[in-house]
Design goal:
Blueprint lengths: L20 E5 L2 E4 L4 E4 L2 H4 L8 H13 L12 H13 L6 E5 L2 H19 L8 E5 L8 H6 L3 H4 L9 E4 L4 H11 L3 E6 L15 H12 L2 E5 L13 H4 L6 E4 L11 E5 L1 H7 L16 H16 L2 H21 L5 E5 L2 E5 L5 H9 L2 E2 L1 E3 L2 E4 L7 H13 L2
Parallel strand pairs: 3-13, 5-6, 5-7, 7-8, 8-9
Antiparallel strand pairs: 1-2, 2-3, 4-10, 9-10, 11-12, 12-15, 14-15
Helix pairs in contact: 2-11, 3-11, 7-8, 12-14
The structure holds pyridoxal-5'-phosphate.
Length: 401
């Protein structure tokens, strides 16, 4: 045992049983025994451009040579933070919107949840403010108290004592159930948070019309729609954001992970032009801030990372990845090797008729990193992955069932 307490891990697991990563390059990583692995999870769903990009490292070095960071609380600002905000808004569907920057997806989510409540507190003149936040079964929104409460994964909500009041869950895919909730409590609902394609809950793309239905209900009842694009942003679905893939525009969007490909921590919340105008309204102190909001070195990493995604057309390449995964997985399903599959772009799940923990372990043994989620193996490789590498991952999976 060492002093390090690992996240989402058995606290009693000895350090010696962990895989000690010593190097990573492109889609490959190596442990301290020299064993090589294909990174079919982009580390933890985040490394869009692959590992070891000197362009990002150099950009961070240049930024830190000027100043490593200076805070952006009033009265300070700096170019890297402003530029990231401008670039993210321009790439998103929320033109004219504004961006709040933080470090982790969890911080971005709690920022969004607080902002949803804030907007309704300010709107409530003479009546009670709406407070209900609707969450979705299978949703994952990080581990701060807001994100923990907003999760639809029960095991992650348990054991921490009382969570935040006024959160109500809807089933994963049942639009009628959502409609019933809105019919009953629509005038008390402040907003609804969901991942457009659910990730950590098992890689579940939305059923046809589902996100459009939620958008309509929010509009009809005066509630705000928040898409948590922490996994699905920055090319993962074959567009810059999943909201573009599915053609549904939220009022608020969170992002993290792929914005820097994980080279340094950065996350954020984008609000629509309408919400921005409300925040800018009279008496508009935004009493919320993280010490490292808009960290300059992280922003430099983000700008270099976005440059690479654009220059190498990794969003376009992800459309090819979609085709390679779809044909490979459908062949495995036709052969009865997997039960079914689902996904979009470069994020997929293969479903088995049993818990997939052993399959993940066998694949790891053969040098392919995946995640098991109940009966599914999740695949979320870097956006630079080649057709041959997709074939290798699926061959290894087939050999491990
Ligand atoms: C959709 C979603 N939201 C929020 C988070 C939390 O992000 P972080 O772990 O950076 O706090 C995650 C992390 O996987 C996520 O997938």
């Amino acid at each position: 045992m060492t002093a390090l307490l690992h996240p989402f891990a058995d606290a009693a697991k000895p350090e010696a049983e962990y895989i000690n990563v010593v190097r990573a390059e492109g889609t490959t990583l190596w442990d301290d025994s020299g064993k090589q692995y294909f990174d079919a999870m982009s580390s933890l769903w985040y490394c869009q451009v692959g590992h070891g990009r000197t362009e990002i490292i150099d950009a961070v070095h240049r930024q830190m040579t000027g100043f490593s960071n200076y805070h952006t609380f009033d009265p300070f600002t700096h170019g890297p933070a402003v530029e990231v905000a401008e670039r993210v808004v321009a790439l998103s569907s929320l033109s004219g919107g504004r961006v709040y920057l933080a470090c982790s997806g969890s911080e971005a989510v709690d920022t969004a949840l607080k902002t949803i409540r804030l907007i309704h507190q300010r709107r409530a003149t003479g009546g009670p403010a709406r407070q209900i936040i609707v969450r979705r079964e299978r949703g994952y929104h990080g581990v701060n108290f807001g994100g923990t409460t907003a999760q639809g994964i029960e095991a992650n909500r348990e054991g921490w004592g009382d969570l935040i009041p006024h959160f109500v869950e809807i089933p994963g895919d049942d639009l009628e159930a959502a409609a019933r909730l809105f019919a009953e409590k629509g005038d008390q609902i402040a907003g609804l948070i969901t991942e457009p394609i659910q990730g950590a809950g098992g890689v579940h793309p939305p059923q046809d019309g589902y996100l459009e239905g939620l958008r309509r209900m929010c509009d009809d009842h005066g509630a705000l729609l928040c898409f948590d694009e922490v996994i699905s942003g920055f090319g993962r679905t074959g567009e810059w954001f999943a909201s573009q893939t599915y053609g549904v525009t939220p009022d608020i969007m969170t992002f993290a992970k792929g914005v820097t490909s994980g080279y340094l921590p950065l996350s954020g919340m984008v609000v629509s032009a309408e919400i921005a105008a409300e925040l800018e309204g009279h008496g508009s102190m935004y009493r919320h801030g993280h010490t490292y909001s808009g960290h300059a070195a992280s922003c430099a990493a983000a700008l270099a990372n976005i440059d690479i995604i654009e220059r190498e057309d990794l969003v376009g390449h992800t459309k090819k990845l979609h085709g390679w995964f779809e044909s490979g997985l459908s062949a495995l399903a036709a052969d009865g090797i997997i039960d079914s599959y689902r996904g979009v772009g470069a994020v997929w799940a293969a479903e088995f008729d049993r818990d997939a923990t052993d399959i993940k372990a066998a694949m790891l043994d053969k040098g392919v990193v995946t995640r098991s989620i109940y009966n599914a193996i999740a695949l979320c490789p870097p956006l630079i992955t080649t057709e041959a590498e997709v074939g290798h991952v699926l061959d290894v999976m087939a050999s491990c069932t």
